[in-house]
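Holo model, zinc ion. Inputs:
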Amino acid sequence: MSAFSILRIYLIAFLLFAFSPAVSRAFNLVIDPGHGGSDKGTFRGSFVESEIVLKIAQKLKADLEERAPAINIFVTRDRQSFIPLKDRVQIAHEKNADLFLSLHANSSTSAQVSGMEYYFSAQKNAPVFLKSKNAETAQTQQAIVAAIQNDLIEFGKTKQSLDFSKKIQSVWTSSEFGQKQSRTSKIRRAPFYVIENTQMPSVLVEVGFISNQREAKKLVTEVYQNELAHALSEAVLTFAGDFKEKSDK
Ligand SMILES: [Zn+2]
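Output:
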């Protein structure tokens, strides 16, 4: 075989590889209703966080199953049971989640505070490698490469978690109930266990303040829960759409 024909085979192989669509797979979503069982979360009388977020999670699941049958949906709990935080993280990893969505309700010492809040994890501190006088060993080299890879994963996760937070905020603040919350709806960073320890894009949504009586009363109504679930579902759909576009490229 001439050098030219070998080159041609390589070129064809390269082109096939570069332009073949990646195998697209289903999108996996893990919904995590906070607290449960003996852990009620925050509560004021009959307004109980673990019950409110479970109802919203169930509505969100039903809404998504109807609108996007191709999305695989898993929940960390579907009843009033206690699930430790590390088990929730483990479920997300076992199910190979592309998105982890934790649902909570807020409380404040001020009865006036209201609105939805979206939390994504702050990037963890990367390990620092000090220059040693000795030559770098193969192990430290490996550790440095591993740290860089980890940084890239963390960076991607942070960016996508922020993107997803923005999607929910934008859908919610243009919905019938949410539009009054355009000033109080906030995106924040916080090191909550479940969003910090999951390796995929993860957002924790505080659906509203139970400490605000007006908001607590709304949070237990069917119509408000439906609207919340629908907004979350809409945001998941756009996020999953972006994900598919990227994996099809
Ligand atoms: Zn909570």
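The beta strands are 28-33, 43-44, 47-48, 72-75, 99-106, 117-120, 186-189, 202-209. The first strand starts at residue 28 and ends at 33.
Archived with the compound record.
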